[in-house]
Amino acid sequence: MKNTRTWTRALLALLALFGPWAIDSGSAGEAYYSSGDFADVEKIDAHVHLHGRADRFMAQAIQDHMRILTINVDYPDFPPLADQQRDAVSLKLRYPGQAAFAGAFSVQNFQSPGWTEAALAQVGSALAQGAVGIKIWKNIGMSLKDPDGRYVMLDDPRLEPIFAKLERDHVVLLGHQAEPLNCWLPFDQMTVSSDRDYFREHPQYYMYRHPEMPSHDTILAARDRMLQAHPALRFDAVHLASLEWDVAKVADFLDRFPNANVDLAARLVHLEYQAAANPGKVRHFLIRYQDRVLYGSDEAYGPEDVDPKAVAAVHDGWVADWRFLATSTVLHSPDFAQSFVGMHLPRDVIDKIYRRNTESMFKGAWASPSR
Ligand SMILES: [Zn+2]
After folding, report:
1. Tens of pLDDT along 94-147?
2. CA distance 72 to 55
């Protein structure tokens, strides 16, 4: 026994020679999950967009022990908001304890005097039907304009009564403002190929080509002013708060706003990219902020996804994310050339990021139905 301890200590000292990454990667007594544990551990994907009945998606999610939060968005490529809400309510009723949803409101007729009341009514209707949060999208800051040509920002007084209501009623606001920083960079300076592909396909959102539009800093500064004005607002800053390129920036955001959390949706690749250069820094961030990070994928699924391969791809994406967060496997991403090592987060941290933080942010959302 004593010998084992001596050897363990000697081994740890040896590991320490390899720098902070080695020191961090686990001490005796901590437990870790393996790749194979993926399907058995209770998890929540806090960021998906399901439309239609999505039964095949839900069957896969149940098999993978992945509960879901489906988020409605005021996004022109998605079905109308009324349809999104109807589908989300139906999902919640058909999959009690498995599916929860966040509602949204439309910015149609934003300039009309009755807009705020109409939006508040939409928020009220979503909450009355069981929404556990309300989403606000990047059209605020990037596409909605006033007749004088100025972009409407998140701290606009017309939005104020909505934030005040959510703050007062302890309802989570899910905010997607701005875009990855890559959106403001030329293609050859972008870090990951999925951003390159997205902005080639969506030139209207490619800000490098639109220097006349608000900068990344301007958009996030407006968000931060709104958060400062609502210190009790519970805020889910999706997509790593659009600060995905440097975990130090995300840490600074979380320090400034103690009521905010971040989700990883569609931005885990940016952590992988940083991990290729500096795994210790990324791992240290995830451990330090283990109570503030929510797992989410940003998977979208609708009636057009009739090919069974669509759910297989969702499953594969979930497993790949798990391998990065839970294991110490050497991994590769289609998004960039360098290989990287999984974060090998302790079980406890994995349980928080994958479930417990989300459960405490959206209290009761996945409670089993009362009999
Ligand atoms: Zn999304």
Report:
1. 999 999 999 999 999 999 999 999 999 999 999 999 999 999 999 999 999 999
2. 18
- Interval between CA 73 and ligand 1 midpoint (Å): 8
The model's pLDDT over 232-248, given as tens digits with 9 standing for 90+, comes to 999 999 999 999 999 99
Domain residues of the chain, as ranges? 31-361
| Ligand 1 center–CA 266 separation, angstroms | 8
Cα of 48 vs centre of ligand 1, distance in Å, is 6
Are 271 and 247 spatial neighbours (Cβ–Cβ below 8 Å)?
Answer: yes
- Rounded to two decimals, what is the model's pTM? 0.91
Ligand 1 center to 72 CA (angstroms): 9
Can you say whether residue 248 is alpha, beta or left, with left for phi > 0 and alpha for psi between -120 and 50 degrees?
alpha
Q: How far is the CA of 371 from the centre of ligand 1 (A)?
A: 33
**CATH 3.40.50.1580 given to domain 31-361:** no
Task: Report how far ligand 1's centroid is from the alpha carbon of 11 (Å).
Answer: 44
